[in-house]
Prior knowledge:
elongated, Pemi-like Protein 1, Chain: D, alpha+beta, 2 helices
Amino acid sequence: MSKTESEKVVSVSSRGQATIPKEFREALGIDAPGRVKFVRTEEGDIVVRPIDSVTDLRGVLAKKTDEQRRSATERLQEERAADKASEEELQQRYAGDDGADA
């Protein structure tokens, strides 16, 4: 281990949770509660990186599918299409209903 590296041993709970030591959280600017991402390097090391913005989450769902084997993008597109159809149906149903019953 080089002089610039620091090492701490932490326990992992039965739920897979581990506490990031305070000195590392402070050095990386990780707020609690907060989110971090784990990255596997080409050398096989696991690196913990803070998430500073939503764009840091880009790609986190890549190659993931739901129980119908749809990607997150496919599922979102289907939900948007269903929302649009529902909205159009409501607009048609109430078109011309400008309070004539009142």
